[in-house]
Amino acid sequence: MQAANNPLAVTFFFVFMALTLGITYWAARRTRTTDQFFAAGGEITAWQNGWALAGDFLSAAALLGIAGIITSNGFDGLIYSIGFLVGWPIISFLIVEPLRNLGKFTFADVVAYRLRQRPVRVAAAIGTLTVILLYLIAQMVATGSLIKLLFGMPYTASVIVVGTAMLIYVIFGGMLATTWVQVIKAVLLSLGGLVLALLVLVHFDMNPLRLFAAAADKYGERVLQPGSKVAGSGWDAISLGVGLMFGTAALPHILMRAFTVPDVKEARMSILYATGIIGSFHLLVFVIGFGAMVLVGPEAVIKAGGGGNMAAPLLALTVGGNGFFGFICAVAFATMLAVVAGLTLSGVATVCHDLWVNVVRNGDAPEREQLTVARIATVAIAVLAVSLGIVFEGQNVAFMAGLAFAVAAAANFPALLLSIVWKRFTTSAAVASILVGTFSSLLLICLSPTVQVDVLGRSLAAVSQEWWFVPMKNPALISMPLSFLVAIAVSLVTQEQGAESSFREMRRRIMFGAAGAVCPER
Amino acid sequence: MLSPDKIDVRDDVSEFEAISRNKSRVAISLSAVMIAMYFGFMSMFAFAKPLMGTILAPGLSLCILLGASVIVGSFLLCLVYVVWANRFYDPAVRRIIG
């Protein structure tokens, strides 16, 4: 197909690479301390951070994947769009302010604030790295096959190019370069989405309802109605919702961005901006998906390959010509780069800040040593991501992104929330809840049709007879309440004097920040 | 809410408690609204498919209307919280720090 070696797409791609590498060179000169490396020195504005959060969060799945689902199934794609948004208000109401005022580089700072550092940090690192690796594998495999499709570059080469670019951004430019890559990508993605949606709506008197009506005329009213694409059973859909909502509120690379702004107010504002940007973008994707259904046709999209992912690029070709097609392909590429860079950086923060500094070095390591460890960890994670991307070529790993959300919801969210709100919460409870959340999610998914049928290719009829069979494709509805229960039960049977007595000091710090935490007490 | 006659009292601890309680009340109420809104929508999607498929106007089904409303509603709830926090919570906290 003509996607291969589209010269405009390649040109846009080189312009983007030149721009981001230039920014990395500039950022590298301003990245000399760990605070600059992990948090851009806390000097990012709310507005920039809002765009960067959107850039961190909107993966290629948001534009290509969801548009593809809508093109072939209609309404059901919107369930993912909504699910990706509803966690943001929860971050804003419950998480962001304590996180900003208690933490330094990772959310484990908050969980470990009143508790014993070492056990909590190790457990949090297990939860965090599981989430990040699952998400990275899903992103790398999607990236490899999409770049193959969009630019005609071989799979292995694409994965290596993405891995190398992300390595350069993170290792030299740290959070500052990563932030700007994400801001640029989010602006390009929103702009591309907006123009694409407008070019579709021009055909329908600028009225989305005319577009949906045209789709219903052509493919039946079912495209406007709930289908069975999203989840097997009703409870499965609820479970998907639990994972997406609370998983979003506990994704390590998203939470990490709370530390890049100067204060709590800016952190709060940046979540509001991100919610607006992400919400608007998903409304555009809904129009784009239906546009591709009516103007390109689901059959043509399926024929283009990539499991429906070509809906948006093909639509761009139809309504905007070759130049716009190249632009959308390049934007999709930029999107993947920005997401993997953010994921990698938060993995590096966990390895360096949680594991090296707070576990190995007992909370005290010189700046230079920390930066060296951070850079070694960056190389290690990049190499791991590229190797896993190559190993999993052609495998069905789409479920891993959803699983990453479910693990975040079950492992990170209960510990994070309880450590902020519950005085009785103890170290043993935090460790138990994080481990139970992580491993129960992994176990449940292995026993579900997601792995048994979609990955291992066994027949649903056969596995559903087994005693261990779990009918739900999404584990969060079981694993998150289980993690909460374990946390509460273990807290009630253990006692931790230090944790209880520092609860008051922690609450003051949540309100006043580090400087005001030592106000006089009666 | 803080009663105005208490602000000037040097009773830092009780004022801290009052602001903190108020803050929790707002955060928990808004979270409850958000969770009810989303899981209300998801339950209807999961268990009331025929109802959600009702066509209200050409091109508009109930599920599209409600789905778009959840997206817009999520943003509005964030906005309500941010306006409250900037107008009432931050100034109250600053009053204690002095």
Describe the structure.
The complex is a heterodimer of chains A (522) and B (98). Chain A has helices spanning 7-28, 34-39, 46-57, 60-73, 77-85, 87-102, 108-111, 117-151, 155-201, 208-219, 234-248, 252-255, 264-295, 298-303, 311-360, 367-391, 398-421, 427-446, 449-455, 460-463, 476-493, 497-501, 503-516. With 522 residues, chain A is mainly alpha-helical. In chain A, helix 11 (234-248) packs across helix 21. The longest helix of chain A has 50 residues, at 311-360. The radius of gyration of chain A is 23 Å and the shape is globular. The N and C termini of chain A lie far apart (74 Å). The model of chain A is unreliable at 517-522 (pLDDT under 50). Chain B has 98 residues and is mainly alpha-helical. Chain B has one domain (11-97). In chain B, a hairpin with a 2-residue loop joins strand 1 and strand 2. The longest helix of chain B is centred in the first third of the chain and has 36 residues, at 12-47. The two termini of chain B are 19 Å apart. Mean pLDDT of chain B is 88; it is low at 1-10. At the A-B interface, helix 5, helix 6, helix 10, helix 11 and helix 13 of A face helix 1, strand 2 and helix 3 of B.
Task: Produce the secondary structure layout.
The complex is a heterodimer of chains A (522) and B (98).
Chain A: H1 7-28, H2 34-39, H3 46-57, H4 60-73, H5 77-85, H6 87-102, H7 108-111, H8 117-151, H9 155-201, H10 208-219, H11 234-248, H12 252-255, H13 264-295, H14 298-303, H15 311-360, H16 367-391, H17 398-421, H18 427-446, H19 449-455, H20 460-463, H21 476-493, H22 497-501, H23 503-516
Helix pairs in contact in A: 1-9, 1-15, 3-9, 3-13, 4-5, 4-13, 4-15, 5-11, 5-13, 6-11, 6-13, 6-23, 8-9, 8-15, 8-16, 8-17, 8-18, 9-13, 9-15, 9-16, 10-13, 11-17, 11-21, 13-15, 15-16, 17-18, 17-21, 18-21
Chain B: H1 12-47, H2 49-52, E1 55-57, E2 60-61, H3 62-97
Helix pairs in contact in B: 1-3
